[in-house]
């Protein structure tokens, strides 16, 4: 009876060896495909993040430059008088070297050594944006009350609120032309004060030599000399970065009237190229479409300077690679910008390049902008 019942039911059995091998092979294939898809997806995400990183670096560097450019030259539409080698010289408050230039157009970097990377540099004379809100601080916006040359007599109803900076610099401007006063001190004796500066003894030095000196009503306010350039950053293994240095009046290696003072500040890492083109309205037409752009602008005063075109090229932190993570992407090469062409021998390095290029007007250098 038991034997018949046993024969009437299916007898459970396990998988044969062949079935197990087939199932295992299929599982391995599926897992391998999933792993490959996951790795490829991760590489795509990494590359996408790198592109976004590159865009951010270029945009942040470009916007920082444009912000400084728009402030430059307030009260200096007809030039800035400085003392160079003991002689008064009228210069542009905005000028810069060309990476492919020579002489005065040579781009200089930290240490005031001519650059070798083909990038440009840019000098800006920028007034302290807060000067109108101060009360008789050293270099605050004070008004000249006695015309002439030499030490300036200005209105000052209080006691200077702070000590002058170690590299104090003032600009005395009639809202057209200006003069750069270095190592200035303000000695208050209300209701006036005396502004002393190193160029006091230079014959005829002022913001308006043709008028016989400074005039009553001229404004005196603080200013900074800003120098932008590309240089390696040791903190990132020598990768290039956009740098900013504070400057002082002195002759640099290219013979220009400003020189870096101290170590530069890293403004933005992973910026490998910086190019500037200067737009000049030679015919004074006032039509931006007629500006003539040139690479590099010497310090010597250039009538009609109205615009600059800023271009920066930045990369991400890490190189992009193919989906197998075996090689960098072949299309990631240095790019040509303005008049800077990378060497023909340049090889793919996997760094995606983002170009930020904007044209900015120089509102402070337009004669109508007072």
Automatic annotation (TrEMBL):
InterPro entries to which the protein is assigned, alphabetical: N_methyl_site, PilW
Question: What sections of the protein cross the membrane?
Answer: 21-40
GO BP terms: namely: type IV pilus assembly
Which UniProt keywords are present, listed alphabetically? Membrane, Transmembrane, Transmembrane helix
Report the PROSITE patterns cross-referenced here. PROKAR_NTER_METHYL
From what superkingdom does this record's organism come?
Bacteria
Any Pfam family: PilW
Please identify the protein, giving its name as recorded. Prepilin-type cleavage/methylation domain-containing protein
Q: Which organism is it from?
A: Corallococcus terminator
